[in-house]
Records
---
Amino acid sequence: MATLMQQRCFNHALREAAVRCPECGNFFCRECVTEHDDRVICAGCLPKMLEAPRARRRVFAGLLQLAQGAFGVLVVWFFFFLIGQGLLSLPDSFHEGTVWKSRWIDKQ
Ligand SMILES: [Zn+2]
Ligand SMILES: [Zn+2]
């Protein structure tokens, strides 16, 4: 362990290093590291370790939102599709009616 004893803490130049962070590979003293998932992580890498799962959750939430949006579009499309089908199923005689023409054009 001679090499480790010669190393100094990355944050405290006067302190001897006690641990080497497996993430960044820098040496740190006991005060600069914390245990996380049975591994000793430096204070600089700990936020990254904690953030990783949260970022994955955010991506999942984004995908869920996208799926909800797509589902909404589908519902709206289906709604208009039904309206279109309803209009198509109407008899032609309905469109030939002059009810709206006589009311609004003849007035002017
Ligand atoms: Zn680190
Ligand atoms: Zn330190």
---
Amino acid sequence: MSRYDLLVRGGTLVVPYLGTVRADLATKDGKVAAIGLDISPDEASQILDATGKLVFPGAVDAHFHLGIYRDLAVDAAEETRSSLVGGATTVLSYFRTGQHYLNKTGPYGEIFPEVLDAVAGHAWTDYGFHLAPMDTAQVHEVPSLVEGSGVSSFKYYMFYKGFNLSADSRDAKAFTMSDEYDLGHLYQLMEAVAAANAATDRRVSLSLHCEQAELMRFFIDRVRGDGDPQTLKAYSDARPPLTERVAIGEATTLAQATDCAINLLHLSSGEALAAAREARAAMPGVDMRFEVTLHHLCLSHDSLSGLGGKVNPPIRTSEDNEALWAGVLDGTVGWVASDHACCLEQEKGDELWPALPGFGGTALLYPILISEGMHKRGLSPARVAELVSANPARAYGLDGRKGNLLPGYDADLSIVDPDLEHEVTTGLLLSGQDHCPFEGRKVRGWPVATVLRGRIAYQNGAVTGTPRGTFVAR
Ligand SMILES: [Zn+2]
């Protein structure tokens, strides 16, 4: 029997918070077992040649939506397969009761096991869940979810008190299937999350979708009354960056009042980022971390046609793209995620308001960070690894298991050819989604192999073996 299972030979290891080092890496029983200058091939049962490649820790795609518009098992199979293309080996998916997903409500104590059952055996990556308590009874479940269900992060959607997901209906209660889903609900949820955080040494946090509903009401009416253009620019005008700024003010104020650790998700605009920076400076005692998405970094509404790019918060301008990149470069932004939500072209259609929001992007996580961040803007490889792997792992209770290459960590690896160039096509991404707002973009720097817990799961454009992803309790 060999001393090691897999030997990744000849590559340059990218170690978060440290830098790059030319070394071999060997795995045993799914863990990183050794790092050395020249580990003998005789000691391993399988060799992966990484000469000339960068060996990154597998990405932790911290914002995902398994099963939002499709069957959970189908989405788990097809969309985590797409994650492997982009070097992600763990996805952390949002789930809530109400419309879409399982289209029902009830206690998470009953519904969450259903979710886990539906996904089990289908995922190509490891996976965890963030849950959104939509009513008071579910808020009361926070302690048991933290202690008994491996869920250490929760979510609140600031605009659901006034709108459904597409923003074509104001019957918010029919959408959330709850009673009062307002700032009072948020306050009690933050109290519960803060209490759970204080009771454990893991970080227990609340993630927030920051768009302010009353302002959205006004701006949506204005846009619809002004010719109702069916464009992505109109969608951005109807829920402008000001709605993010006000929501960030509300969320951070309540976080300080309750001592709740928060994550401000998918900041989409320069103004949202500025508001987040100001809140952090004003409230240095509050644990607040900031996320941006690939699409808010790279897509602008003047460069997209059709409605395939409808998403919440909306796609903004190229100036916003650059403002967000500046926040990535200067360390304001904690991590980059995909906000992957497989949404077929037929669910978009050609009418702006009923079009379902969201689209996929997980297959572009390392490729976009390397192409746009490293090659174009000078991010170091280690910083790239921090942004898509180590930082989200730390924020969400996976430190010591995911997000690094050190011995003892899960042997989750993304072997990247930094100079491999592909034009993005839907076929390349191995997702179930039949369109892609990034289509046609030239991207340089792609994974050539992705390793999940010591076994090659993706190589040279195809998945290998069977889905081996398991639930990670956090
Ligand atoms: Zn999302």
